[in-house]
Specification:
The chain is mostly helical and 849 residues long. Helix content is 69%, strand content 3%. The protein has a 4-stranded antiparallel beta sheet with strand order 1-2-3-4. A hairpin with a 4-residue loop joins strand 3 and strand 4. The N terminus and C terminus are likely disordered.
């Protein structure tokens, strides 16, 4: 949902060709613009000539695709209750349709056409959904929708029995796929944020499942808290960026990158959201905890899609934040630290799934370094590594699911001879592992060589290059640990009993494993896809291209060093683990998270104990102090002169104001409750008189009705209370703060009313619409009546419904109290009658005879 900017955005180096159409109904319009850009010269080839594109986004088709995911997810639970396996086949249809749509537009996108779809909800308020299919969105759609289809088909075989997890996971996985699809296509910051938070909610439900397990509850809550907190900080960054730039459209921001301190502050806030979502240190601990979820969920959310959202965000905003100088430094530092921490922890894990989880953290750090590089080769490597990581990590998670499903364990200390008994599964795992380790001719090797090439140079680039090499050594080491621990035969371990997996369970990871090979062998296709994104991200082309052979050069030597060093580290890892166990571990992210949450809980208990003291004056004082501290300080900082200030508009306002002041002073000095209530009523009626003098009889009538009902309610309540106030006399030390807070609150409200009333010289666009159409459209000369009865009739009905519900509740309480009193009186009368009807000798027990 977009903000006030409704113009078609022009991305960097893009020339728009408007082709706007309108689809009616309910004031909603759908605008589609196909933007074309001339690709810069690359590889010494002439620039691609501009061609007319036949690819169109369709009127509302993208939004329809997103909504279809959510609608089918809502309708799927009844199907899952009766036919669990069929539910996964149905759930795979919307992602398959999204994948086909993206593939149908792939050629046009690579040629420079970017279908844009804008679905306007409220043109007056500028509320809209904006979607754009560019190269980065195409890459992510291939991962989100393509792997989503395979995971859903895999889940059909993974969940054998119709368990609760199986019935819940199909609709939730589909809803998550729809949210991710909307996220990667979003061309508006607020649209992106909506889908960002939808993925967080879906992840919480998928990890927590039924909530029966304490471990799953804690893991889901931890993921929710960490990612939601980062998302809120990111939203603040979006608002700063959008308000200072005058637009929330990402493509428009890319065309005119913001500069200055506001852009720097917004970048820091956005980085917090990206780091929490993509599990960067120190926010990485939620990802291993989330491994309590079933393996298909881990394969989809925590390997192929959701955890890449933060990396995707930085890649998406690379042209927007190109003027922020510290972005490459921050992403490199946090990315390298994350790469080391994840790889180091993976080398000591015995659970294959946890090993992959920490390996995912390490790879996400690698991706974050590339996302913030800001160079053509770095962005080229990022696109290639996104494809590589999605393919090999999804494969390995699905393979681990097969091993766990067929053997009943994921502990490498208990697994032996699995590769001999499941040769096809081991082959699939080996292909994916080769890509993760960077072995040619896999796509992982192609992308990693590009990453090494990106940081060749002098100065700080050398430090980053060394960090990438050391992190890649850890990657090779834990990859070898995964293969040997999961599939090799061990002398000191009995062969594991294994049941052959169904063919349908093996096909999805086999497809993704073959993609690891195909994307590497067919590197010209991969290079075309990655280069198109890199050119748009940095605004120019480069000489480097993805390939299997660039000659005997330094990146090739670094790749060889990582392979040999990683294998050597894996061979000596057992001794290294024994040494590491003897070393102290002062820093532990999970322990730090638990301490922070415990401190927050203790702080909340302490604040609640001191604030919730059962005193209404204390509560009112806290509210006033909060008002003075937050909006009051802003009012002082951004003070604006009060223009055209007049003491009165009508002479009748003077006596009414005098009545209000005298009544207010009387309320403060009153000692009887009924007197104070009546004086408050006088104030209300005087304010109603102000409305009449000011030309608002309808407001005055409302005020009189409210005051009358309030007085009646007070009188009914006061019958049950003492006639006089029973407040104990307080000392001067207590009274003085009360007086000061009250005066400060009154002064603030008075000045705020004057400033706010003079801040708007002309009516807003919405107000003008109301004024222009009130008499013509509703035959009403009073615009307030027209708004309440016609323009916002549904709001009025809703408010009346709330009042009716409140009145029903009050009446129920009154009637129940009266009924209880009647029953009590009836019981008392019956007991007295019974007592009076007994003989004197019968009282107190059995009578004498």
């Amino acid at each position: 949902m977009a903000g006030p900017d409704s113009t078609d955005a022009v991305p960097l180096g893009v020339r728009n060709r408007p082709a706007t159409t309108a689809a009616g109904g309910g004031g909603s319009t759908v605008a589609r613009t196909v933007s074309r850009r001339r690709r810069p010269q690359r590889h010494s080839k002439p620039a691609t000539p501009q061609r007319t594109s036949n690819a169109t986004a369709g009127e509302g088709f993208v939004l329809a695709l997103v909504i279809s995911h959510l609608l089918v997810a809502l309708l799927l639970p009844p199907v899952a209750m009766r036919h669990t396996r069929a539910a996964y086949l149905v759930a795979a249809l919307p992602p398959a349709a999204a994948l086909c749509w993206a593939l149908a537009h792939a050629a046009a996108v690579l040629a420079g056409d970017q279908p844009v779809e804008r679905v306007t909800w409220s043109a007056t308020l500028g509320l809209e959904f904006v979607f754009r299919l560019d190269t980065l969105a195409l890459v992510m759609t291939l991962l989100v929708s393509g792997i989503g289809v395979l995971v859903l088909l895999y889940s059909r075989w993974y969940f054998e029995t119709p368990s609760g997890d199986a019935k819940r996971s199909a609709p939730l996985l589909l809803a998550f796929a729809g949210a991710m699809f909307g996220l990667v296509l979003a061309d508006h910051l607020l649209t992106l944020y909506i889908f960002w938070e939808l993925t967080t909610i879906c992840s919480f439900l998928l990890v927590g499942q039924s909530g029966v397990s304490r471990e799953s509850r804690r893991a889901s809550l931890q993921a929710l808290l960490v990612t939601t907190l980062g998302g809120l900080v990111m939203l603040l960054g979006f608002i700063v960026l959008g308000e200072t730039s005058g637009t929330y459209r990402i493509s428009r921001l890319a065309a005119e990158p913001p500069t200055g301190s506001a852009a720097a502050i917004a970048t820091g806030l956005i980085l917090v959201g990206a780091f929490t979502k993509s599990a960067q240190v120190p926010f990485h601990n939620w990802l291993p905890a989330a491994m309590v979820a079933p393996t298909p969920i881990s394969a989809y959310l925590h390997a192929a899609s959701m955890v890449k959202a933060g990396v995707f965000l930085i890649g998406r905003l690379t042209p927007v934040l190109s003027e922020v100088s510290y972005l490459p430094v921050v992403t490199a530092v946090f990315g390298l630290v994350t790469m080391f921490v994840g790889g180091w922890r993976a080398l000591r894990e015995y659970d294959l799934k946890l090993l992959l989880a920490y390996g995912t953290i390490s790879q996400l750090g690698f991706l974050m370094v590339l996302a913030g590089s800001g160079s053509y080769t770095g962005e080229l490597a990022l696109a290639g590594m996104l494809l590589a990581h999605g393919a090999f990590k999804a494969t390995l998670f699905l393979v681990i699911g097969i091993v766990d499903h067929q053997t009943g364990t994921r502990d490498i200390r208990e697994l032996s001879g699995v590769g001999r008994r499941l040769p096809w599964v081991a082959t699939v795992a080996a292909l994916a592992a080769m890509s993760m380790a960077g072995v040619p001719p896999m796509i992982g090797f192609v992308a990693k060589e590009a990453a090494f090439e990106a940081y060749l140079g002098a100065g700080p680039a050398v430090a980053v290059e060394v960090g990438l090499v050391l992190g890649s050594v850890l990657t090779v080491a834990y990859t070898a640990r995964l293969l040997v621990g999961g599939f090799a035969s061990k002398r000191d371990t009995m062969p594991t009993e294994v049941h052959p997996p169904p063919v349908g369970m093996l096909l999805p990871p086999a497809v993704t494993a073959l993609l690891c090979l195909a994307l590497g062998v067919a590197y010209p296709v991969t290079d075309e896809l990655a280069a198109t994104y890199a050119e748009r991200a940095v605004g120019h082309s480069g000489e480097y291209h993805l390939g299997l052979w660039h000659g005997f050069n330094l990146p090739l030597a670094l790749s060889l060093i990582t392979l040999l060093g990683g294998l050597a580290l894996a061979a000596y890892n057992a001794g290294l683990n024994r040494l590491r166990d003897r070393l102290p571990s002062p820093l532990d992210a999970q322990r730090g998270y638990e301490r922070v949450m415990g401190s927050l809980e203790r702080l909340a208990v302490g604040v609640t104990g001191r604030v919730q003291v059962g005193s209404l004056p204390t509560y009112l004082g806290i509210i006033l102090l909060t008002v003075l501290a937050v909006p009051g300080s802003v009012l002082l900082i951004r003070v604006t002169p009060i223009e055209q200030l007049r003491w009165w508009d009508n002479v009748l306002q003077l006596p009414l104001a005098l009545v209000i002041l005298i009544a207010a002073a009387g309320v403060v000095r009153a000692t009887r409750r009924i007197t104070a209530v009546l004086l408050v009523g006088v104030i209300g009626y005087a304010i109603g008189g102000m409305f009449i003098v000011g030309g608002g009889p309808d407001l005055a009538l409302t005020q009189f009705l409210v005051e009358t009902l309030t007085l009646i309610a007070f009188v009914l309540v006061l019958r049950r209370l003492p006639a006089r106030f029973t407040e104990t006399p307080s000392s001067r030390r207590v009274r003085l703060p009360k007086v000061l807070i009250s005066l400060a609150g009154g002064v603030f409200v008075g000045f705020a009313a004057l400033i706010f009333s003079s801040a708007r010289d002309t009516p807003s666009a919405v107000s003008r619409e109301y004024l222009e159409h009130a008499e013509e459209g509703t035959s009403a000369t009073n615009v307030v009546n027209a708004i309440i009865i016609d323009f916002r009739a549904f709001d009025t009905v809703g408010e009346l419904s709330v009042l009716a519900v409140a009145a029903t509740g009050v009446a129920s309480l009154v009637l129940s109290a009266r009924s209880a009193r009647r029953r009590k009186h009836a019981r008392s009368d019956w007991e007295s009658l019974s007592t009076a009807g007994r003989a004197p000798g019968e009282r107190g027990g059995k009578g004498r005879t």
